[in-house]
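ok so heres the complex, two chains, lmk if somethin looks off
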Amino acid sequence: MTAAPVLDVRAVGKVYGAGDAQVRALREVSLSVEHGDFVAIMGASGSGKSTLMNILGCLDVPTSGRYLVDGTDVGRLDERRLAVLRNRKIGFVFQSFNLVPRMSALANVELPLAYGGVAAGVRRARALAALERVGLADRVRHDPNELSGGQQQRVAVARALVTAPSLLLADEPTGNLDTASTADVLSILDGLNDAGRTIVMITHEDDVATHAKRIVRLVDGRIVEDRRQAALDGPPPRLAPAVPR
Amino acid sequence: MNALEVVRFAVRGLAANKMRSALTTLGILIGVAAVILLVAVGEGTSQSIQQNIQRLGSNTLTVSQSFAGGGRGGGMGGQAVPAGGGGGAVARAPQAATGPRTQARELTLDDARALADAAAAPSVKSVSPVVTAASQAATYEGTSHTISQLVGTYPSYFEASNKPVAEGSYFFNDDVLAARKIIVIGRTVAENLFGSVDPLGKRITVAGVPFTVVGVLKESGSSGFQDADDIAVAPLPAVQQSLTGFGSLGQIVVQARSAASVDAAQTEISQILDQRHGITGTATADYRILNQAALQETVSAATATFTVLLGAVAAISLLVGGIGITNIMLVTVTERTREIGIRKAIGAPRGAILGQFLAEATMLSLVGGLLGAAVGVLGAQFTIAGVRPVVVPASIALALGVSVAIGLFFGSYPANRAAKLRPIEALRHE
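and the predicted structre for the whole thing:
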């Protein structure tokens, strides 16, 4: 493995609107995330962390600057390649779960593989493995509306990691969860990072951020703090002894 | 992502809103069923009219008196007989009462004889003068029946008008010369008067005059409102003597030698009758010649137009159904914007989204089309407004094809809209 970082953000800016109504959500943000890191991006609402998240997830394009995922310049990709990139390299976990309604947990987890063109048999096996990894092996047939919030978010995590992406992007993954479910989801993320998965997580809760190896703080679209709290190649700071069931 | 999966996603999407999907399908169903059924009705009408025309006989020309006729003398100084024809007004209207008019002459037996002249009319095979007495009461041993049409004619009439005898025999030229009171009756008359009794050789009384039954015509089936089997045929003088009197003829049925010589025969007849009736120049003939072949062509053209018209009306309802699909798919896309955003965020390519919504639209129209075809074919089994519809297989294929095309066409706009959604905006949608 050469040194190409998973994420390489170079002087990215994002401007919304025009004229007097112009809002500069991001100003010259540069950030590089190495393979195996667990980064928490923190900031108050309006600090530009959601904008950064959307750009990192290739859902939005920056107004200025360059952004590379695994050495690939995202700005040069057309829509079709962008879709492939989102499918293969990035796994999303949203605050509001965002499972497709009326589809079983298994079908939801299979969905990215279906879009990736994986054969049905392999797809099922990998989806079941991913669901087992998040401790939902007994809920595969349930529809999202038959699952609790914590369970839904675990399905979303399974869906995000089933394609074995280079990067797991979590946008306030615990924002809508109670304490117990929050602990569940965070311990799963800890476990995944321990297994070598790169994770970038957005949060505004200090307690959640303590799970990360590195904390990046945004204020008014600028990085004001970039602090490492655990070694890059070590385990995450609050790794539980075992993934709880 | 194979085709089967696209279809599975589509089915799942449609099943989520069963009522809505069913109603949209109904729109297409009605459109397709209407196309198939109305075209079938048009075709049925056309076929039944064609059959009726063919039943009149082949290669025949029917000459009858035209009340709209009466030659117009005008400045040409023709036959100056004072106007008195029934249709005088029609002829007189353009030039008021300035010109003298000829009176319409009636068709006579002499006209018929002239037409039979082989030298003047080489294309004519046979000539049958015809008198018709309508609604004649016939009785047989206390049973009575009103024959709707009693025809007095020559033996050649049977062949010319396509009325073969099923039992017994025709009458012959000798019978005509001798004015024998014999009669050939239609199937309806035979059944009503005799029931299960064999009518041959029995004497029936028609309007007080006794006739001997010598034959029964082959059943030709009813033609619309008129029962073509409620008929009796007797020698011309016998009918004239006892019922109609020796006045004018109702019509003259002329049979041409072949299908190719029908038009030539018509020209010959016109020449002979024009001469005999003194019709010259621009004068309107006081007779009319009904040409079987020409009639058939005209009617074919008319019924084809009629069928196209019906089809067009039905096609409009199919179009309306298609707009219904666009409408409902637009609603669906708006409703599922967030879902589209999720799918895009996890890497759905544009084609997959486009395919999913196109598949949904096409499925709506295809299911509607198949059900519509079933309803149309089923409906065509019943008699509609006196017409037995005849399903045209091409109309089924066309209606089904068009319904699928409608799904693709009317579904493509909403599907495109879905595929073009930017994931970031789609995800923000609530």
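quick notes: The first helix of chain A runs from residue 49 to 56. thats all i got rn
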